[in-house]
Amino acid sequence: MGCSLITILVIVSVLGLYLLVFSGPGAMEISEFHPFRSEKAQEEYLALYDERAKNWPVTSETRYVETSYGTTFVRVSGPADGPPLVLLHGAGGNSLQWIPNIEALSQTYRVYAIDNIYDHGRSIYTSPMESPEDFVLWLDEAFTKLELGNDIRLVGLSYGGWLTSQYALHFPERLKKIVLLAPAGTVLPLRSEWIGRAILCFLPHQYFTKSFMFWLLEDSVNQDEASRNMLDEWVDEAYMATRTFKPTSLVNPHVLSNTELLHIRMPTLFLVGESQLPRRKRRGL
Asked: Read out DSSP for 204-225?
């Protein structure tokens, strides 16, 4: 995947993180259309989700696994005898964020792309997720139900990267190696300047979400039509998700202490970056 697509993945994920962390929890009401606001909202979102899933470029199967926190949706690709590779997407999204990567990854690995149970996708939570331990235990139950054993490669993007680091601290014996793609928190907090601009996305119009992300990704937007089209699709989906799902509040990702970082002993790839292109003066909103 090109650098511009990686950048888009990271920005969309971090924006989604703040939309979820600050949106506030909704009432825990388990209805036939839970976790959506209404039956109509469920139909609208899942129709868009399924339409986007048609772009998954390789053969896959879908599974639902039951945990004590609810039902987890997993999309499985790659050779049945391949080593297990689990993908955790960023906040505000779902497993379809991995569409640009899955063809390459599934050549070698048996890939399990999971919809975060407390986020936007096909997983359905039945209990609130109130601590890092809740997410870690949910993941461990899902891995056990999927029969992944103790040889797991775990890749996390943004919020998924922070969850990966938390799982590595609690269940290191189950992991072969981990990859942290611009993990939210974990190493450094986001700058207040960035957060200030992100807050404008709470205004009730899709324009503000799109303007913010296009401001952050001006180089990619102006240079790469494929990246621009993909970003448009994700903006549409993110905006629909905020209107159709009940609001939840993700556990705030914290920066790991030096002691915690030293306890991550398995082979780890930490990947961050920024545009190599000359910075130009960027317009405000």
From this structure: SSHHHHHHHHHHHTHHHHHH-H
pTM of the model as a whole: 0.83
Domain total for the chain? Answer: 1
Range of the domain at 262: 3-271
At residue 54, the pLDDT reads 95
CATH number, residue 191: 3.40.50.1820
Closest by CA to 97, choosing from 244, 278, 234, 279, is 234
Is-contact 111 78, C-beta < 8 A? yes
45 is a domain residue? yes
pLDDT, averaged in runs of 10, over the chain (285 residues)? 49 51 54 91 94 94 97 97 96 90 96 95 93 96 96 94 96 96 85 67 65 67 70 78 84 90 93 59 35
Domain contains 277: no
282 is a domain residue? no
Cα separation, 70 vs 126, whole angstroms: 5
Answer whether residue 279 is part of any domain.
no
CA atoms within 13 Å, Cβ hemisphere of 65: 21
Which helix (H) or strand (E) is 281 found in, with range?
none
Number of helices followed by number of strands (H, E) in the chain: 10, 8
> Token pair of 186, please?
């974990």
